[in-house]
Amino acid sequence: MARISVGQFAILTDTMPQGDLSYAVHVGFKVASNAMRIACEFGVTFESSGDNDNGEKILLLEETCEFDIHPDSWNGLIKDNKMTVVPSDLCLLANQTVGVARGILYCKTENTPFTQFILPPINLTTLIKENLVVDLESAVAE
Q: 3-135: what fold?
């Protein structure tokens, strides 16, 4: 892991919500071919169903973890000027990113009532089902 950045963190209410909580997550990837780096973007939003089921947003976190890939491994991903990363490798990066999100969530909510918000286990294989394919000829370095 080369870098961690918190793009956004917000507690959007002053009081602890009553009723059930739900959460939604998203995962995405970016590639910086010139740096041999893959970034995993992860976000989570906690919502309260409340009494009227309007889904009030309570807390949100968006973070990115960047991973340097060893040149031998990087070159092994490239064939015909296309880089292909399989879902199992993407899940490995995403799992580490989710672990970092748990730490960020704890640190940012420490000594507040929101510290009881935890990020439960997430089955990333249900979210990451396809290869990440990057055409290196047309890719713009990020």
A: Bacterial Protein-export protein SecB (3.10.420)
